[in-house]
Amino acid sequence: MAEHPAVAAHHQFDDLEQQLDASTLGMWVFLVTEIMFFGGLFTAYAVYRSAYPEAFAEGSHHLDLTLGGLNTVVLIGSSLTMALAVRCAQLGSNRGAANYMIATLILGLVFLVVKAFEYHHKYVEGLIPGPNFVFDSPHARHIELMFCFYFAMTGMHALHMVVGAGLLIYFILQARANRYSPEYYGPVEVMGLYWHFVDIVWIFLFPLLYLIGHR
Amino acid sequence: MSTVSEPIAGTKVHYLNADYGIKSWLLTTDHKRIALLYLAGITFFFFIGGAFAVLMRLELVTPQGDMMQPETYNKMFTMHGVMMIFFFLIPSIPAVLGNFLVPMMIGARDLAFPKINLLSWYIAMIGGAFTLYAVVAGGVDTGWTFYTPYSSTYSNTHVIATAVGVFISGFSSILTGLNFIVTIHKMRAPGMTWFRLPLFIWAHYATSIIQVLGTPVVAITILLVGLERGFNIGIFDPELGGDPILFQHLFWFYSHPAVYIMILPGMGVISELVTCFARKKIFGYAFVAGSSVAIAVLGFLVWGHHMFVSGQSVYSGMVFSVLSFLVAIPSAIKVFNWTATLYKGSIVYMTPMLYAFGFIGLFTIGGLTGLFLATLAVDVHVHDTYFVVAHFHYIMVGGAIMAYLGGIHYWWPKISGKLYPEGWARLSAGILFIGFNLTFFPQFILGYLGMPRRYHAYPEEFQVLNVMSSAGASILGVGYLIPMIYLVWSMRYGRPSPPNPWGSAGLEWKTPSPPPTFNFDKTPVITEDPYIYSHDEEVEVG
Amino acid sequence: MTHHVEPRKVYFGIFAALMVLTALTVLVAMFDLGRFNIVVALSIACAKAFLVVMFFMHLRFAKPLTQVMVAGGLLWLVILLSGTITDYISRGWLGIVPGW
After folding, report:
1. Is B133 contained in some domain?
2. Which residues face B418 on adjacent strands?
C-alpha cells in the first residue's frame, strides 16, 4: 500500500496484532481505574443525597436545565463523531479520521464553553461554596454541600475533557501526517475509548445533578 | 539509540554496559534500568522515613516529653508513615523486583508499555519531591491517614503539599499495576501458560489488581481533602452536614488493600526462595497461586475493621469483622504450603533463605495478631494502642521488608552480575531479626497494657519496655546499614556471578548475569512446570 | 487483521436512540414519581451508558478478557457503594439517631 507507510511493532511486541491488543487492554484497564476514581465521588454523593433529599432537590432547581441538556446533546454528538473517526481510521482514511476528530474537538470545546458560562452564572448568583455562598433557605448549609458536589463532579469531568481535547489535537496531527492504516489504527481506537468514557460520566452526572426532584 | 558506544572487545554486552552516561539512565525504557532507578529512589525515601523513626524512638526513651514538643512529635510519626508507606513500601517489591523480574520470568523482552514504565518512575519522584517539600517547609501532623476534619480544617501544617505528593505518587502505582496486568496477559513467551507462571508472577498479578482498583479511590479522596482545604469544597465538612466517617470509608477502601500491595509481592518472593533453597517443587502450586488472588479480592471487603470505634454502625462492624477473619484463610494456606514445601527438603541456609524463614515466622505473628484486632470486643480494648503499631510493623517490616531484602539478595547476582559477601549477609540477616523483634515485640505488651499510640510522653511504668524497643531500633538500624554498604561494595569488588549461582529452576536464571538488554538472546519456549528441582543438584556458590 | 468494522448506520442509529433517551429522561423528570424518580433516571442513564459501551466502544466485539475487566470494575464499584451505604442504612437500627 503506497498511501500508508509500513509500520513496525515496538520492540517489545512480536507483531502489530499483539501491540493493538495490549494497548486496547491497557486503555480498558485505565478506564476501570477511572470508574473507581469517579466511583469515590458517586459513593459520597449517594450517601449525602439520601441523607438530604430536599436540599439536593432545592439546589438542583438552581442549575440551568437548558444548558445542561444542550451539553448532553453536544457531548453525545461528539461521541458519534469520535466513533466515526475510529471507523475511518479502521478503513484507512486518514483524512476522514482527522476531519471527524476535528468535529469531535469542536464539540468538546463547545461543551467546555457552555460549562464555563454555567460556572460564571453560579458565581454571579453567589452559589460558589465558601464564605460568599448565599442561599435563602432553611437547608442552606446542605444546599451548599450539594453545590460542593456540583463543582467537584463537573469540575473533575471538565478536567478530563480538557485532557481529552489536548490528546485529540495530537491525534489529529498524526492523522493528517497519514500515520494510520487498517493495520495500525490502535491509537485512534484508544483515544476513542477514553472520549466515550468521559461521555458516559456525563450521562450519569446529568440526571444526578440537573434532574433531581420534579421541576 | 543512535549513540550506542561500542563495548570493549571481550566483555559481554549486557543491560548495564550497553550504553553509558546519565542520559542513558534517565531516558531509558529498559525495565531493568528503571528497576534500578526505583531502587535508588526508594532507598533514599527509606532512609528519610527511617530518620523520623530514629527521632521518635529517641524521644520515647524517657517517659517525659523532653526532647521535642508534642506538635513536633506528631509531625515525626506522620512523616515516618507517609514516607515509608507511600514512597517506600508500596513501590518497594513491585517497582524494583517486579519491574526487573516480571518480563524476565514470563520470557518477554520488556513490559508492555516501557515509556509508561519510565513515566511512572518520574511521577513517583515528583510526588516524593512534593512530600519532601512539605517535610522541609515544616512538616505535616495529621497522621499518615489524613483523617478529616483535622486534616481539612484544623491542622495548620503543610497538608496540601503532602496530599498533592501522595495523590501524584498514586498514579505511579496505578501505571505500574496497569503495565503488569497487560504484560502478564499479553506478553508471555510461547508455552508459558497460566499454571506454569512462577508464583512471583501470580502475586504481582494480584497486587496489580489492587493497585488498579484501589488507588483511584484514595486519589479522589485525598483530592477532596485538598479541595476542602484549598477551595471550600467541603464534602467531608460537618458544618455543611458532611460526615468525616465517610472520609474513613473511602480512605480505607484503598488503604486496607494497600497493606496487601505491600505483603502480596513479598509472598511471591518467599515462594521463589523457599522452593529454590529447599530444592523442592512448591507444595500445592494452584492453592498458593489462587490464594494470592483470593487475598486481593477479600482484601477489598474488610476495610471497615479500621473503623470499629469510629461511629460506624455496629452491624457494619459485625459484617466487616467476619469478613476480616476470612482473609486469614488464604494467608494461612500460603504459610502451610511453604512449610509443607520445606518438609523433607534439602534446605540450604543461605542468606535469602534466612530472610524467608524470618518472613514466615514474623508474618505469622503479625497475621495472627490481626485476628485479635478483627474481633470487635478485643479491638475496643486495643484500638489505637501500641498493639496495633506492633501488629502492622510485624506485617510491613517483619513481612514486607524481610521479603524485600531476601529478594534483593537472591536476585542481586542477576541484577548486578556480582556475588555479595555471604558471611556479612548472614550476619546482617541475624542482626535484623534480633533487632526487629526487640523493637516490636515489647510494643505488643505495651499496647495490651494500654499505652496509646501517637503520644510523645507516657507513664513511668512503661519505660522498661520502651527502652527495650528503642534499643532494638538501633540494632535494626545497623542491620539496614550493613547490607547497604556491602551491596554497594559488591557492585565494584564482588566476585562475578555465573548465570545461575543458586542452581535455580527459574526462567530468569537461564540468561546471563547481568542479562542482555532484551533479556533473552532468543525468545524462550517453555515446556515444563516451574520449580522442577531435584535433591542432588547443588547450589554452586557457598 | 480482521477487525470488525461497524456499518455507519449503526452509529447513527445509536446516536438517535441516545437522543430519544435523553429527551425521555428530561420528560420523566417533569413528573413526580416520588422515590422512583431516581430509579427511573438511573435506569435510563444505565441504558445510555450500555449503548455507548457496547456500540461506540465496541465492547460487543471485544475479547472476553476485556469484558471481564469491565465487569470487574463495575463489581468493585458495587462493593465500594454497598459497603459504605450499608453502614449508613444500618446506623439507625439501634434507635440511636446518627449525630453527624
Report:
1. yes
2. B496
